[in-house]
Design brief:
Blueprint (H helix, E strand, L loop, with lengths): L8 H15 L22 E6 L14 H4 L4 E3 L2 E3 L14 E5 L1 E2 L33 H9 L8 E4 L5 E2 L2 E2 L17 H9 L6 H23 L4 H25 L23 H17 L5 E5 L21 H6 L6 H25 L13 E6 L13 E5 L9 E4 L26 E2 H11 L19
Parallel strand pairs: 1-9, 1-10, 4-12, 5-13, 6-9
Antiparallel strand pairs: 2-3, 4-11, 7-8, 10-11
Length: 468
Amino acid sequence: MMTLNLNGLDRRRFLRGTGVALALPLLESVAMAGPRSSEPPQDPKRLACFYFPDGVPMPLVEDPAYKDWSWFPHGTGDDFKFTKALSPLEPLRDEISVLSGFSHPKSRSVHGHSNADQFLTAADTGSNGPYKNSISLDQIYAEHIGNQTRYSSLVMSTDGGTGTPRGTHTLSFNRNGRAIPAENRPKRIFDMLFVKSDEDAARRLAISQSALDDLLADARSLRKTLSSNDQSSLDEYLDSVREAEIKVEKAKHWLKTPLPTVSADHLNLNLTPDEPRQYLQTMFEMIFLAFKTDSTRVATYQIGRENGVGISDHLARAVGFSLAHQLSHETKNPGGWKNFAIYCQFLNEEFGRFVGKLKSTEEPAGRGSMLDNTLLLFGSASSAFHLSRNYPLILAGGKNMGFKHGKYLNNAGSNPQGGAWDGGREPWQQEISHEDRPLSNLFVTMLQQLDVPAESFADSDGKVTELI
């Protein structure tokens, strides 16, 4: 065999083989390491995480807008009152917990536009310089449970793809911190979940297996010729190859398994964010259908990208505004807090609609409702204007996992940092006025209640025992 090097023909074959293996659509839609039991599992545990950008309205206590248009409730514990911003969630009060005073320690002094990347990872992705991320919460659970369903996880966003470092279009990152592309087209998602793939899938799967075999054989020879730094880079790359190999192996068990049958009569699958309310409802419906048919038990949906970049900024048209990000900059104007809160109210309404649908649907494979067996995290990595602290968070569902709701877990105090930006120093540039709890403590709590044997996550230093 000829000597392998990174500049020769064999490197091109190496990369071409990977392209074949990783580009097959089938490999993104299979996840079964062994034959499925004929009996449905009892109380399947599901996880879905949602992200909205640009923070939330946080007028100061002395501002007349504080009473009605502040995002966070007034009060604490089970003695709290929703403002108008969260009022759509009032009927679901006993199914949700609102949290304040949580954030990721490594990002508290970072501009809010850079923060979506680390929302589910807690990594120190920073605002400039070298970029490195880590595995996201959802993918840890996907590694634990993904072999029991056709799809290890469902990764969605309004803008689609991966975006850019510190400008992510996806919440999901694999074990090496690489962004997992998100799908934003409802029809593509529906077809992936429920429309039979072509009859040539078995042949293509065999080709991909052969390509992977060649890749690994080449890699073993190539590694001997590399420096230690290059070996580390190659090892990281091979982790991706092994991930593909696992997917190929899982695919073999699903090729002849019939896809679930669902009706799409009530869906317009060709919607775009230019029809924002219907689009958002359809994206939530994709997750509902995937969960109901047990096609996956893990989902993420990034509702919008930070910094007003991308088609997701058009979602504000649902409530009569032009661009969503602009609303966060105009809170100093008359009626600015109200306008921003009306947009947040729209997002809360659609999230609440999804929560309500899970609550009203009997669990197909266990006890109670689907909501009782589904844990939902809804939030942002910004609160006040560009402020990367005191994340606005809602945790819903999971009662059969031990979660107890109907409370406002207020760790931010009675007068958290906020107010409109007047053109001076932005809130994120100001001194930290309150020490948040690590959001990773919540992640550890969630993972443990999901039966993942996790003692820690990133920089966690405990659990959020108030919720269980």
